[in-house]
Design goal:
Elements (H helix, E strand, L loop, with lengths): L1 E12 L2 E12 L3 E5 L6 H9 L6 E9 L2 E2 L5 H7 L4 E4 L3 H4 L6 H13 L3 H14 L5 H4 L9 H13 L5 E5 L7 H17 L3 E6 L2 H7 L2 E6 L2 E7 H6 L4 H17 L42 E2 L4 E3 L12
Parallel strand pairs: 3-8, 3-9, 6-7, 7-8
Antiparallel strand pairs: 1-2, 1-4, 4-5, 9-10, 10-12, 11-12
Bound molecules: adenosine-5'-triphosphate, iron/sulfur cluster and magnesium ion.
Magnesium ion binds next to helix 1.
C-alpha cells in the first residue's frame, strides 16, 4: 500500500530551480534508497518531505503522506507529524541533538510531546529505547550529554529518537557517512532491523551505492535535481540502463577491484555536476554522457513502469542497436 507519494515536485530557492519534476512513491514498510553525487538534491528532497526547507524556498507539486497533502501544510500541523509520523536522521547528529540536554531527557521529550507521556514514564521509555539501540548501561548513559558519546553512539541516539513514536517512515540522510566502516555497518544493520521491527518505511540517502544496495529493496538515482533511474535493487545493480547509473556502478566496482588488489586505472565519471541554476537545457547529464545526441537538448521523458529511466538513449533499449 502506498504510504508516501511525491508527484511532480519542483523546488526553487531564491528563484534558482534545484529540484525538477521529482516523482516517486514509498509503500508501507518499504526500504527505498536515494543515491547521487554531492549537490544532486538528495537532502533537499528529504527536507521537502519534512517541511524543513530553507527560507525563500518555493515548492510546487504534491507530497502526500497517506491521505494528507504536505505541500502547503501549515507549520502547526506539520510539527505534529514530525517525530510522530515522519522522522529524520541527519548525517551529523551533533547538529540535531541539543548539546545542553542529557540524552535520556531528549528522547523522553519526543515521547512527552507526541505521546503525552508523563516525565517519569517518558524517561523510563527513553532508557528502554537506549537499551534497544545497543547501549549496555542505559540507565547511566541516559544521563550523558551528547559530547560525552562517540559518533556511533550519537547516531544510535538519533535512531532511538526517530523510532520512539513508531513513525510511518524514517528519512535517513547519510546517517553513517561520518562514521568509520565497522561502526557504519553496525548502525545500518540496526536501522534496518528496527524499522522492519516497527513496520516502518525507510528512505536511506547516500552517495554510496553499495551502502544503499545492502539495505534497500528499491533504489532511485538522482542527478541534477531529478531522478534519472529507479528500479529494484537487483534490477538496478544488474541491468542499469541510464548512462549515469552505469558510470556510478563502474566506479563502485572499480573500488571493489582495488580491494582485490587486481586494479588498473580507477574508473571515474568525467566532468562535474553542473552548479545549481546552471544545468544545461534538455538532459542535465549532457556534457558528461557518452551516448549524448542532438535529441538530448530536449528534456528526456521517463519511460518504463517498474524499472523507470529518464534518458533518450538508455542501454538495453531497442534504440541501442546492441
Ligand atoms: N539553503 C540553500 N540555499 C541555496 N541553495 C541550496 C541550499 N541548500 C542546498 N542548496 C543547493 O541545492 C543543491 C542540492 O543540494 P542538496 O543539499 O540537496 O544536495 P545533496 O545531494 O544532499 O548533496 P550532498 O551529497 O553533498 O549532501 C546544491 O546545488 C546546493 O548548493
Ligand atoms: S538523455 Fe542523452 S545526454 Fe541524457 S543521459 Fe540519456 S543519452 Fe545521455
Ligand atoms: Mg545531502
Amino acid at each position: 500500500m502506498t504510504l508516501l507519494e511525491v508527484r511532480n515536485v519542483h523546488l526553487a530557492i531564491g528563484g534558482v530551480e534545484l529540484i525538477r519534476d521529482l516523482s516517486f512513491s514509498i509503500d508501507t514498510a518499504q526500504r527505498l534508497g536515494l543515491i547521487g553525487e554531492s549537490g544532486s538534491g538528495k537532502s533537499l528532497a528529504a527536507l521537502a518531505i519534512m517541511g524543513l526547507l530553507p527560507y525563500r524556498s518555493t515548492v510546487s507539486g504534491s507530497i502526500r503522506l497517506s491521505d494528507q497533502e504536505l505541500v502547503g501544510l501549515d507549520e502547526r500541523r506539520y510539527s505534529k507529524l514530525r517525530g510522530d509520523r515522519i522522522a529524520m536522521i541527519f548525517q551529523e547528529p551533533m547538529t540535531s541533538l541539543n548539546p545542553l540536554m542529557r540524552i535520556g531527557k531528549q528522547i523522553g521529550e519526543v515521547l512527552r510531546i507526541h505521546e503525552g507521556l508523563s516525565r517519569p514514564a517518558s524517561y523510563a521509555q527513553a532508557t528502554a529505547l537506549l537499551e534497544r539501540v545497543g547501549f549496555d548501561q542505559p540507565a547511566q548513559q541516559a544521563r550523558a550529554f551528547p559530547h560525552q558519546l562517540s559518533g556511533g553512539q550519537r547516531q544510535r541516539v538519533m535512531i532511538a529518537m526517530a523510532i520512539a513514536c513508531n513513525p510511518d517512515i524514517v528519512l535517513a540522510d547519510e546517517p553513517t557517512t561520518a562514521l568509520d566502516v565497522t561502526v557504519q555497518a553496525q548502525v545500518l544493520d540496526l536501522l534496518a532491523e528496527l524499522t522492519s521491527e516497527h513496520g516502518c518505511a525507510l528512505m536511506l540517502i547516500s552517495h554510496d551505492l553499495a551502502v544503499v544496495a545492502n539495505v534497500c529493496d528499491h533504489i532511485q538515482v538522482m542527478y541534477g535535481g531529478a531522478i534519472v533511474e529507479s528500479a529494484t535493487t537487483s534490477e538496478l545493480t544488474h541491468f542499469a540502463e541510464h548512462p549515469y547509473t552505469r558510470a556510478l556502478l563502474a566506479t563502485s566496482r572499480g573500488l571493489d577491484d582495488l580491494d582485490n588488489e587486481s586494479f588498473g586505472q580507477l574508473p571515474t565519471i568525467a566532468g562535474t555536476v553542473p552548479q545549481a541554476g546552471q544545468f544545461p537545457p534538455g538532459c542535465t547529464y549532457r556534457g558528461r554522457c557518452e551516448r549524448e545526441s542532438y535529441q538530448c537538448q530536449t528534456p528526456p521523458v521517463v519511460t518504463g513502469t517498474t524499472h523507470q529511466v529518464r534518458c533518450w538513449h538508455p542501454y538495453g533499449s531497442s534504440s541501442e542497436g546492441a
